[in-house]
Amino acid sequence: MEILIRDLLSSDSTPYNLLLEADPSINKVNRHLSKGKCFVSIYSSEIVGIIIINEKNTHENEIVNLAVLEKFRGKGIAKKLIKYAVDYSRNKGKKSIFVGTGNSSLNQLALYQKCGFRLDHIIINYFIENYDHDIIENGITCVDLVMLKKSIINIKGI
Ligand SMILES: CC(C)(COP(=O)(O)OP(=O)(O)OC[C@H]1O[C@@H](n2cnc3c(N)ncnc32)[C@H](O)[C@@H]1OP(=O)(O)O)[C@@H](O)C(=O)NCCC(=O)NCCS
Q: Any idea where the domains of the chain sit in the sequence?
């Protein structure tokens, strides 16, 4: 399958269907879209995946949204988007990249660790304090935000 990754262009219609799957808060999605750098996966001129990264500070970026269309999942598209975001961040001189996910998001926790992220810290009660409805996945209530971090320092400067 020929998948191309490129910037989200102003001529693209914003794929809210995807963005809201990763984050049900429209306010947060809009904030991330306005502040962040957004890349999309294209298959046959259709946007099938999206990733947004934000600059946390001089040395660190954060993945703040990632989603793939349901019928395109399980084909490595998320892994490719993460690699693209990591390469972009490294080229911008960042030393590490963060991503946060819920304690109940077992597939996402697997995905990020397979991409080289390691558990960094937990924001206790994040979902209770920031969302007005219960989120349950894999039979687990989502309450805490698990932050993972990947070091992207390029030792040889390549
Ligand atoms: C999470 C998500 C982005 C993964 O996208 P994807 O393109 O299917 O992911 P990949 O194909 O690159 O898979 C990478 C890993 O994710 C996990 N994974 C993906 N699909 C899975 C599934 N259906 N069941 C279990 N694990 C799965 C696996 O660990 C997989 O690794 P593997 O290829 O070695 O088995 C996608 O499921 C999605 O859009 N979900 C809804 C939005 C969301 O939850 N975003 C993340 C918010 S933190």
A: 4-151
| 132: DSSP letter | S
Average pLDDT over residues 77-82: 98
Distance between CA 24 and CA 19 in Å, rounded? 8
- Asked whether residue 18 carries a pLDDT value surpassing 60, the answer given is yes
Q: How many residues does the chain have?
A: 158
The residue-averaged pLDDT of 135-147 equals: 97
CATH number of 4-151: 3.40.630.30
Phi-psi region of 45 (alpha: psi -120 to 50; beta: other; left: phi over 0): left
Query: Which parts of 23-124 fold into alpha helices (H)?
Result: 26-35, 77-91, 106-114
Q: Ligand 1 pocket: which residues have CB below 6 Å?
A: 21-22, 66-68, 73-79, 101, 105, 107-108, 110-111, 114
CA of 88 to the centre of ligand 1 (A): 21
**Residue written as token pair 């996966």:** 41
Residue 156's pLDDT is 56
Distance CA 66, CA 32 (A): 12
Please name the amino acid found at residue 89: S
